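haha ok so turns out i had the wrong file open the whole time. this is the CORRECT one, sorry everyone. sequence first:
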Amino acid sequence: MQIVGIEARNAKEATKAMKLEYKKHIQGFSAVEATMEDFLKVQEIKKEVENAQVKAEQLGEKLEDLRRAEMILLQEIDEKSARTSIAGNEYKLTVNASPKDAEIQFIGSVQKYKPSIKLKPSTYSIRVSKYKYRSETFKINVSDKNIIVDDKKFKTNIVNKHMTINVKLTKAYYPFYVNTSPRDARVKITNIPPKYKRGMRLEPGSYKIKVYRKGYYTRTRWVTIENRKKIISVVLGKRQSPKPVPN
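then structure:
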């Protein structure tokens, strides 16, 4: 492109010089004094000027085309360099969850987890959960030079920018309370072996509760425990004493 530019400048300078020479010849004689030789000389110079102008215009257009091509090439180089830079900073993440069928989610993001997922520099919040288990939530900070988990209780390993993190969920148990009226009524959970104790911890699920006391009507009901403490109230109706039969 530099050579074309020099040629274009030279062509312009040559055109300028020819125009000056052309004017010089025109001004050097009058129409009366002019000979055929002078006329032919002027025509020759005029033709050379015109040819030089055409060449200069062609070289100028070629120079502009080369400049545009250079800009496009530089832009492509910058974009490729940026992509290479981003790819070079990516880390991979694999979460080994226990139990294996636990759900792994990015919180506050539409991004879906998959093993060996690529992560660009940013901060990610991740939740590992499963029904009847306590969820675990942690953050991962990915920078240009490192990947860090904010909770050190999880065992991690990094090999070739690939982090593996082990997350073990524990069974979830929640306290269960039955408030009865009368207060000395007895409570029994009929679909599990353990005996009921006030505040006993149960895993999420459905339980059949029986509340009874002598002199009162027995009541049964199903109770569902989800992911929090459960308190229920059961009021028993008192049985009526039989009326004495008149003599």
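DSSP finds two helices and 14 strands in the chain.
again sry for the mixup
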